[in-house]
Amino acid sequence: MVQINSVYRSIFVIVLLLTSLTGGANVTFKFSAGTISNGALKTRMENNISALLTEIARAGKTGTALNLSGISMEPAAKTRLNALWDDIHFVCDKSTNISKCLNDMQGYQVRTIPITMKPLDSSYTQSLNRELTISLNKNGVITGVRPAWEIHEDVSTIMNSGLGVTDTRQRREILKWVEDFRCYYNEKDSAALRQIYSDDALIITGSVVSRAHKHGDMGTQVVRQVNYKVQSKEEYLTKLFKNVFKPGNKINVEFDHISVVRSGSKENIYGVTLHQKWRSGSYSDEGWLFLLWDFNDPEKPQIHVRTWQPEQAVAQDGVFSIEDFFIP
Amino acid sequence: MRRTRRNLRIKRSSMKRIINKILLSVLSAFLITGSMYAATPEEIEANMDRIKLDERFIYAENFSEDMDTAYENALSELIATINELESISSVNELRIKEKKAPLKVETEVLKPFVKELRYSTGTRNTVFLYLPLAWIKITADRTGVEVVPSENDMTAQTSPSQSTSATDSGRPEPVKPTSSTQLPPMNDILKTLCAQDNWVEIKGLLIEYKNQKKITTGTVKTASEVPEDAYSILLDNRGSILAILSPKTSGDRINYKTNLSDDESNHKDCIAIIWYR
């Protein structure tokens, strides 16, 4: 009896060691020193983000739906995160996360929270090692949760080109809005798209048409011509919602290059150029997207111009840029 | 019978010893692997976390599948962080309004002073770069103002467990003025400016007074270049106001913040915003 008890005791110690090494489920978050001075807000945001990351860890580990009921988060942000979660899960890599509190025009941002993506199907083609970005408003309520840009080099270039703190914050804001903009297509968020395009937005789509020309005895030469189609916001969105946003049609939009140029004459106007990969159902294309952003109202930035050009059009005519458009 | 019982007891105790040896080996192996598991990446992360929570340092980190890419991205982010420091960004706001080139952060100058921690786990490579805040100094030359590491701190210790008086508070320690001088009565502008503690608070006031044509503002200088006939506001590298100095009369300046005679030479590492009534 004594020998059996001592054996069981030893096994119990081993099991205890095992469970302690695998760690608990709680994920904590703290802000880096000196990045936020308001103590009460800092604590509130840290607790809120810790609760969110803990829930992500739980749901990611168990493969279940997110329960965001106890988390201080805008309803639209919860909807978007749940829509993202329907497509892909992810887990936090670290049980303790410490990041800077970054300022943008609408509040605060937290970046560089390392996560590992757990795709639900084979349609995910990006890296499994990503970072999470969390946006909060001035009251510390979470307004957005999304995997960050993978194109670190472009992001660094954009942030380092900032002239002064206002411009730097606007650039950070641009990156956040462009990340959201991409998600609006993936989540088929028609309300958000309707809001972000200005009422008089100009939508230009380029397409390459190949024509065969006969040259007498020299045979037939194929000539590629770029045609540009101009649509209003309503025309563009109506076709998008009807033909692309139909139920069951999965959309995957990726940006693998971004550059930002500030207007030389208008302080809050920026031109954003993106290389876009679009997959929707069985259709896919790649091309260059140019967006003219207006940040005069930082709460509601608007897109005045959206152009899309396939690669061949860009090779021939170059990408649209901010200089191509008159800003009154 | 007695012999059988004795043999049985011997067998049981041998079995017990063998089982305990096996369990001990398993336990030891587990402890060893456990200590290996809690080894290098976690220790490095713990060190990173200590630096992140220490306000004497600025840092940047990046994760990438490629270590060199992670380093370059982290360095870019560190420079962006330096650019957003209150003392630099607020000075840049003023320079941009005056249509001057913003302060430059020379990457190649900073690189040798940047400290690094790095580790790999599978496909994720982590690079963590950090710099003591006190190392960032703004200097002026003929072409403009630039951000460089302070020569005085080139041999300073960077371990978070060690501290120096300069880095504890994040401010350079000024030489204490020695004499007290009778102050002329302060006007409303000086009273209001003296009530502020940092650049963010005072910046708006200077713009307002300038618009009201009560003052004219000059350029951003280092403390050693303040003209004799100018008032000056001296800031440390965090944008905190250390002194508001009067023009030099009879060889002396007055610090309106302390009501004592003072001089810009007592604040060598500071930025000076000059203005005139």
Question: In words, what does this structure look like?
Answer:
The complex is a heterodimer of chains A (328) and B (277). Chain A is an alpha+beta fold and 328 residues long. Chain A is 35% helix and 36% strand. Chain A is built from eight helices and 13 strands. Chain A has helices at residues 2-22, 39-62, 75-87, 152-160, 164-186, 190-196, 233-244, 311-317; strands spanning 28-31, 88-92, 96-99, 102-103, 107-119, 129-137, 142-147, 197-214, 220-232, 251-262, 269-280, 283-294, 302-310. Helices cover 39% and strands 24% of the residues of chain B. Chain B contains eight helices and twelve strands. Chain B has helices at residues 2-37, 40-52, 67-83, 86-97, 107-110, 165-169, 188-194, 199-211, and strands at 57-64, 104-105, 115-121, 124-132, 136-141, 144-149, 216-222, 231-235, 241-245, 253-255, 260-262, 271-276. In chain B, the strands form four sheets. Chain B has a four-stranded antiparallel β-sheet with strand order 7-12-8-9, covered by helices on one side. A three-stranded antiparallel β-sheet of chain B has the order 1-4-3. In chain B, strands 2-6-5 form a three-stranded mixed β-sheet. The relative contact order of chain B is 0.12. The A-B interface holds A 3, 6-7, 10-11, 13-14, 17-18, 21, 30, 32-34, 93-94, 96, 98-100, 112, 114, 127-129, 131, 152-153, 156-157, 159-160, 162-166, 168 and B 12, 15-16, 19-20, 23-24, 26-27, 30-31, 34, 37-38, 45, 49, 52-55, 59, 61-65, 69, 72-73, 76-77, 79-81, 83-84, 89-90, 92-93, 96, 102, 123-124, 126.
